[in-house]
Amino acid sequence: MTQLNNSEAWNPISTFSVQKLLLVCNNAFQIPIWTRRKLITKVGVQMCIDSGTLIHPDEWANDKQRKQYCPISIHSARIAWLVVNGWDKPLELDFGVPSLGCYTYPLQDGHHRLAAAVFRNDETIEGSPSGATSEIEKYLAKPAWWQAKMPSNVSFRPI
Description:
Elements: E1 14-17, H1 18-21, H2 42-51, H3 64-68, H4 72-85, E2 91-94, E3 107-109, H5 111-119, E4 124-130, H6 133-136, H7 144-149
Parallel strand pairs: 2-4
Antiparallel strand pairs: 1-4, 2-3
């Protein structure tokens, strides 16, 4: 059994490509996620930003009845808050284990954060993945071997 020393501690947070994730996760600006018919629009999010209508994402998170009937404008305001203020919580992703017949929709938590990343045109987003490593690696911003071997303070410049 291999043991890791303190400098090699496993980091469960990985950096994912937003565009690759959108291949398997719903884009709130293209598919109705929270309502059956209405889409979140970038114009709606921008209007919330311009008017200062920002709602902290946790404000409605624990009220299931309010959350169930939450109008699209509230979702836009939650995304707007994230666009303006950012976030430090990674997406929760589960890629399943296809070799065992276990398939799952990957994005377990973080639709508003992913929508904010799309709105801001972010290239990458942090996520806490679970599932088959072969599936996880398909969506990473950099291959796993790169993340494991390169210290965070080292940058790569091709020759």
